[in-house]
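ok trying again, last paste got cut off:
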Amino acid sequence: MSHSEAQDAYTRASDNTNKVSTQDKLDGLEVILKTTKFGMMTTRDIQGCLHSRAMALSSHEGLHFQFLTDCDSHKVDELDNDQHVNVSFLDPSTTNWVSVCGIARTHKNKEVISKLWNPLTKAWFSDLGDGIHKGDENDPRVAVIEIVPDEIRYWQAQKGKLAQTIDIATSALTGKISSAGELRTITKDEASPSMLQPRIRTLLCALFIFSTHSFAAPWNCKAEIGKEHWDFTGLNAEKTATRTRSSPPTTYEEEVRFNLCDVLGPREGRDKGDQCPEGTLACLTETNKKEIEPPERITAVIPLASSSTLNVQYKTLSGGKGLTLTLHGPSWPAEGSPSTPQSIRFTLYCPSSSGKSEGEPSITGYSSQTGILEMDWVVGAACPTVANNDGDKKDDKGGNKDGDKDNGSDKSTGSGIGWFFFLLLLAFVAYFGLGAYYNYNNYGATGWDLVPHRDFWRDVPYLLQDLLSHLFSSFRSGGSRSGYVSV
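nice, full thing came through this time. structure:
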């Protein structure tokens, strides 16, 4: 029975899946996940028992849920037995919840671990003292659990807790069904990267360095996050990166041809069937090479990024080291099942802020299950320019493009004094407000008795009067050389 055909009255009243757009459902999910950083992951052991444990969510970029884990844990053994999992999230402050069911895989991609690693994660890995198992991101026990959802269901409150309580009480008295929120379902197709559309970012999100931007407009090879700007038009050229892996008696070669800014042209000397279709910006070719005849055979040609499904996404790296740039492509294989949406994710490092030397792009990994190919590239275009309040742009070293230094410090003095008095006013308001609340709740005070430290504030006018009298008296007697006041 489908969700829309569910017979219970509460689900019928709350289910809003078919009344909102896919983008609205994705936006609602994003709101909940921002406030719920821990989820309960449920796996199944070989006897069929379900086991749940709390897990810290490391990333949900592209709606691929990633968690750092110890590869020696029981949950990894259970995932080897059954990859079907469920992860649930709950926000007690709002009663919002999310349920994710999907397929999990475990891997040890060092680049991914480095991106997800948090210094506090070390608390879950002990230092064995052998110089290898040190509990850091290079510890061989550290692994990543990545979940690709088949379905996401979530409930989002449309009323505050007080209003929810009133709604429930009213429903209990009147016999009507309570409906204080909306139940929504995101299908596998809707959760795929090719379906993720632009999201409206609030001002609060713009303040964070990890703000993610996405748009479906034609890619102009430029990016902007807040006041930071990146211009990749200088990289408008075809690039190639290769990686080989041995599988005796043969060798597999992975070759990626890409152009960040424009579609690729046809490859001379190769059959059309062994090339990606027109409109492709990134193409992965897998070749099986042997020492016997025939010497090589193309086994797969995969369009990773296409102009029709590009949906460019980018996100800044921590510490201003650069940004990640993701280009999306169609599902592959085009015919047959299962078919997985493809994408290519570049981690672009700024040489000056990352401490890395500029070089050529390199392949760091490809997952046939997720359809994501990862690449690293240390390149100057990953260094942002920053626009000041006057619209001028400066590079990441603080100078503007005309070579002038930033003069914003002269303008900040006055605003700093204003902020001081504003905060001082807020402190006084908080003092009197909280003090009055305390006196009312603990002593039942009313009127003047509500004022905190009432006797002191009543004496303030007299204290000021005494102070002024003393100052005037000292001033009038200042001309006398003796220590006496004239009478």
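cool. Confidence is low (pLDDT under 50) at residues 1-6, 196-218, 401-413, 479-487. The radius of gyration is 31 Å.
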